[in-house]
Write a structure and sequence with these properties.
alpha+beta
Length: 387
Amino acid sequence: MTNSPASGVLDKDGLSALIRLLAARGRTVIGPTIRDGAVVLAEIGSADDLPFGWGTEVEAGRYRLVPRADGAVFAHTAGPQSWKTFLHPQREKLWSAERAADGTLSVTEDDSGQPSYAFLGVRPCDLRAIAIQDRVLAGGRYPDRGYGERRAGAFLIAAECTEPGATCFCVSMGGGPAADSGFDLALTEVLDQDGHRFLVRVGSETGQDVLSGVPHQSSDAETEEAARAAVDAARERMGRAMPPVDLRTLMGESLEADRWDDVAARCLTCGNCTMVCPTCFCTTTEEVTDLTGDHAERWQRWDSCFDVDFSYLHGGPVRASARSRYRQWLTHKLSTWYEQFGSSGCVGCGRCVTWCPVGIDITEEAAALYAESSGRVRREKQKETER
């Protein structure tokens, strides 16, 4: 937890009141819920829709729901979706064109309006991911208008992590289980002999206004200490870690490493890692027409650097091999992202590890590249000594 002051304590009824208030103010409330054997993000109407009493067991290429006896609601790890699904949707219509009977053509930009979202249960790693997407999609010379409108109207309720998963490595990416910034309200779940409750911290004026409309108790020292201890303990229980090196430099020095052949032999180039990643942003556009040819639409949809046609130029793709496509993804994520956006593109959420169908582990690959690079450096130094 940060040193920002606590503002109150909610119980389960208070959590339901918070959801009802946000809905009454015209917001579409999105939060974690159980569907198809996973914790997924969907519209919720009350606290009863939340995954009380469910946790997760994750490993490389493995995800399972498991019941919990304590009734915790935020004790699960990241599911197959991130908030990117709503802020930067998989498909979005950009414009439509109509040809009239006299042959004139009119083009209409899509202006169907954007929902006013309230996101409940945003993990600290995903807060960092949203901040990265803000720089990528809302900053620069050519901002994405749809993203900007959805993001500007979004109300973010963070849920600090008290139960990191086996594939989590946010601490080694400079983050952590505590919500430091970027939220309107932050919740820390506490379960002890004094009951099940949520410590609330305010991160914005809008958050303060919302909290003032929800029944809550004043924060107390015992709850604050219990919340702080739970988050601090989570920081020490990360399931994985990146090697303690400058990843940006490591990737730049490993472009010809033999390890790329090893991972290419396992990688299916399915693009699952890019789909579940909360920061991957690549898109393509496609045009569709009706049978008459008088109506056409342009749609934007997600794309992936693992798609062989992603780098297609006249004559063929630039990156035709699995080796080159995996190398492009990893080096961009951990290194060249800095050159474009001033930070790493990885927040350590572990989704790419969990949801890879063959269990490729980004932390394992980085460690292998480091070991190969270190061995190469040692051999070169030995040769210089022998000279």
